[in-house]
Design goal:
The protein is built from three helices and five strands. With 125 residues, it is an alpha+beta fold. The protein has a single domain, classed as GTP cyclohydrolase I, C-terminal domain/NADPH-dependent 7-cyano-7-deazaguanine reductase, N-terminal domain (GTP Cyclohydrolase I, domain 2). A five-stranded mixed sheet has the order 3-1-2-4-5. Strand 4 and strand 5 form a beta hairpin.
Length: 125
Amino acid sequence: MAVILIEPFPMDFIFIDELRVDAKIGIYARELCVTQPLELCLRIGLPEGAGADDDISRTIDYAAVVARIRSELGERRFKLLETLGEFVLTLLLDEFGASTARISIAKLGILPGVRRIGLEMERSR
């Protein structure tokens, strides 16, 4: 029996690190009346052919991604980081055409002696 090795598909990513946004998030009473600073790190898989030429329409405009995330998170309320993460990942996949997307979300300084609390998620289409 012959073993067939499949080469991994090469993947190019845009990264956005330490994106600070204020969001309405949480389930505790102290979280319901104020926005909280979040730190997001994103890895966004580029569509095939994104680097074939200098046409911005063939790739993902990172400035548009940042503006859209800030706008959406400024208007919406989430109870859980997991729900917020699913929302952002779906936005990247469905509206920006990402082939894959990874997010790290951290709440900053919400517990004594803990600098960051958060999660990481990844989705593909």
